[in-house]
Amino acid sequence: MKFVVDTHSHTISSGHAYSTVLENAAAAAEKGLQLLCVTDHASSMPGAPHFWHFANQRILPRFLHGVGILRGVEANIMNVAGEIDISTKVQGHLDWVLASFHEPVFAPSSSAVHTEALLNVIQSGRVDALGHLGNPNFDFDFERVLVAAAEANVLVEINNSSLSGSRMGSQPRCERIAEIGKEVGVSFTTGSDAHFAHDIGKFDSALALFEKVNIDEDSIVSTSASRFIEFLQSRGHASIAEFQSLR
């Protein structure tokens, strides 16, 4: 199994990452990736960029160092109502919206509160994927949320950084999320969650987890550029003419 899309990466614009878009794209090319999603933190995260950073992503070339560039965001789940901190106007310029819990924005609460927030963000129709769900600070009802994600065609991310120590305690939770996701028909994606170019396309821990749980390659959209593009179109995103030749 090989992953050719990194759907979660950060640049210096996130405020606590250390590489540029060009450096990340060069690293993606070295790793043999076909597509790279630029997903800096949305503005509610301390140190994150403002409105215009996301609105102006349309100036990014579609290819850098031979790697297709997708214009995206890692939005913050703001509250129990499932609101996210990217305006609908800006979202219209983006190819990809990942949404996650972050402690500085959403104070960890009970499993019931987290579950309600996740169900509401899924039902909002505004997000393409849920990021680093294995974080033990944000417990939730795995089955209810994963069934809802499968029904709404929202991806579940297996976050390599979480499995590599950035969110201690994530490993067993991610395994259980993958097991239940497999049972209920979830589709998955892989994110390096790189905050430095060296980690772009780093999926070793995610790969080991998928192999352990025996997740079918066809259930992971990041194993094929065309599969990922087809997923975006199934979510209602506009076709990207420059990517039509990718397989």
TrEMBL record:
Cofactors, names only: Zn(2+)
GO MF terms, alphabetically ordered: phosphatase activity; zinc ion binding
Binding site for Zn(2+) 2: 16, 41, 195
UniProt: Zn(2+) 3 binding residues: 74, 102, 132
Pfam families, sorted: PHP
Cofactor note (record): Binds 3 Zn(2+) ions per subunit.
UniProt domain Polymerase/histidinol phosphatase N-terminal: residue ranges: 5-79
Alphabetized UniProt keyword annotations: Hydrolase, Metal-binding, Zinc
Binding site for Zn(2+) 1: 8, 10, 74, 193
Name of protein: Phosphatase
